[in-house]
Amino acid sequence: MGISGRHLYRTISSMLEAGADGEQSAGPLDFEQLVSPVLSSISKTTAGDNGHHVAIDKPYSVYTHKEKWLIVFLASCAANFSPFTANIYLPAIPVISRDFHKSVELINLTVTMFMVMQGISPMFWGTLSDRWGRRPMMFACLVTLSLSCVGLALVPTSAYWLLILLRCLQATGSASTIALGAGIIGDITTPDERGGFFGLFNLGVVAGPSLGPVIGGALAQGLGWRSIFWFLCIFSAVCSLGLFLLLPETLRSIVGDGSISAGWIYTHPISIIGRHRNVEGPNELPPRKPFKSPLLMFIYPEVFVLLFINGTIYAVMYGVTASLSVIFEKVYPYLNQTDIGLCFLAIGGGMLAGSVFSGRFMDAYYRKIRDDLIRQTRTDSEKDIDPRAIEKDPSFPIEKARLHILPWVVSVFTACVIGYGWALESKVTIAVPLIIQFIIGVTAMTVSNATQTLLVDMMPNQGSSITACNNIVRCSLGAGMVSIINPILVALGDGWTYVVLGGFCVLVSPLLYVEMRWGPFWRERRRRAQL
User: Fold this and answer.
1) CA 268, 273, 279, 281 torsion-angle sign
2) Is residue 284 part of a domain?
3) How is residue 298 annotated by DSSP?
4) Which has the closest alpha carbon to 301: 424, 399, 185?
5) Residue 36: other Cβ atoms inside 10 A
6) Domain for residue 231, yes or no?
7) TM spans, by residue (predicted)?
8) What CATH number is attached to the domain comprising 505?
9) How far apart are CA 384 and CA 267, in angstroms?
10) 505 Cβ partners below 8 Å, 6+ apart?
11) Distance set, CA 367 to CA 23, 34, 196 (Å)
12) Nearest of 472, 453, 469 to residue 182 by alpha carbon
């Protein structure tokens, strides 16, 4: 018989309570101390009564490792549109302001409304994709984006209201691609490889903030601001065509592990991906999830804590990027607009590096914890352990596997944010704040990658919905930061402004330990309530 999740929960609960009364209650219990009492029980899930090896289940997905990389690459290309569409528009704001005969503040309202819809729309598209599939929703999003860009390229300068409306529609199409891509990763990957795939996926996400302003500035200066939207229209149309031809449906309630054929809307015409569909074993579909509002996920404390941590770090980082142009123009007056646009590459490059290396590191540490469990469970040579049985067990310390390094990462992030402010206050050489920006990008992306991966680990069948929740928290806090950063800079100056932002990070840091300490209990309580 398999190990009882309730028995494991009670065992670990009693150990944690005992540890809390002991002398070492200052931090989380040692990993071996936490899991040792249940290791022998875990072995029963993969070994028969005679102790001999039991056949391991068929692979989680029919897609080969290379095919998974290609699927995630396609999803990453689509996810690029969310930040890219937001940032490519920024350099053209002064020109659009003059053409529409509106103040910069009123044109900035189009940015605010874009961010609002950027947070709200994934709640709609993500929920639909968890029910009706990733492929049709991804295609619908990109078509919506492409059509909205045509409208923006042709909008008359006398119709300011239409500019706002079309920017909202543009956000509706572009923003949800991140949530849909995260759902795809949850569909086809196992936990021990998920971090690396999220690293690749986030390359597309973080390319937008660094490349968007550079491309937008060049287009606006050379061809006019309308060329930005024609460029986005062509880019999104080409991407949507590529996804239509190549991207397979991955939602497990529709295609299972990828071996089940579905209707024409779920079929990709060019079958480069998924040619190896003939696998042994029954091909059973899990039941389709009933419609549930993603907002219900906020009631789960293990989810809310992660969302708040990630949202706060994102908002602070947005405070750095949103004020970059204004501060650098003041501190380094010899820079022109093109030079300032290139300065965004520092933090963007850091985010790219953090996305790649944090994903690989997370996968390596996850496998280390899993392999340690396997080695400790093998009490004799006749027994073998299925790694997937350990990963699926409710007692697996997934919170520690994903978050163990984040307290140090957040500490470095906080120190760099504070140092960045005082470097600008002191007007040091421009190389110093750019280097600090790079480190801020690396650490912020590490936090984002770890928390996003853990969220999908906890709810793999609702990857799009949980990512939509993550998106609305990040965008809400980010929009709030954009609205207050300039008044704070005026009131406090550069140095003390970033001390305040660093203080926000200090306040949320203890929540990492709260998640690692209490997350397993909250997760088990939710699992039992859903039985």
Assistant:
1) negative
2) no
3) G
4) 399
5) 13
6) yes
7) 69-86, 106-125, 137-155, 161-185, 197-216, 228-247, 295-320, 340-361, 405-424, 430-451, 472-492, 498-518
8) 1.20.1250.20
9) 39
10) 312, 313, 316, 410, 413, 414, 417
11) 30, 17, 12
12) 453
CA–CA gap between residue 313 and residue 403 (Å, rounded): 14
The answer to whether the pTM exceeds 0.90 is no
Q: Convert the pLDDT of each residue in 356-406 to its tens digit.
A: 788 778 778 877 877 777 777 665 445 565 666 666 666 677 888 888 889
| pLDDT tens per residue, range 189-238 | 887 777 778 777 877 787 877 788 788 888 888 888 899 999 999 999 99
Cα gap 363→401, rounded to integer Å: 9
H, E, C per residue of 47-66: ECCCCCECCCCCCCCCCCHH
**Residue 51 in tokens:** 């102790």
Q: CA 366, CA 195: separation in Å to the nearest integer?
A: 9
How many domains is the chain partitioned into structurally? 1
Burial status of residue 105 (CB atoms within 10 A of its CB: 0-12, 13-18, 19 or more): exposed
| H helical segments located in 158-225 | 160-175, 177-188, 191-223
DSSP three-state, residue 130: helix
The residues, any chain, with a CB within 8 Å of residue 454's CB and separated by 6 or more, are 306, 398, 399, 402, 403
**In 224-297, alpha helices (H):** 226-246, 252-255
Inside any domain, residue 184:
yes
Q: Render pLDDT for 62-78 as a digit per residue (tens, 0 to 9).
A: 888 888 888 989 998 89
* Residue numbers of the domain that contains 140: 65-272+291-378+385-529
CB 525 within 8 A of CB 430: no
Burial class (CB in 10 A: 0-12, 13-18, 19+), 382: exposed
As to burial, measured by CB atoms within 10 angstroms (0-12 exposed, 13-18 middle, 19+ buried), residue 478 is buried
**Residue 77's closest CA among 229, 181, 185, 189?**
181
Residue recorded with tokens 């906890």: 458
- Paired tokens of 232: 């986005």
Which amino acid, residue 137? M
Residue 216 resides in a domain? yes
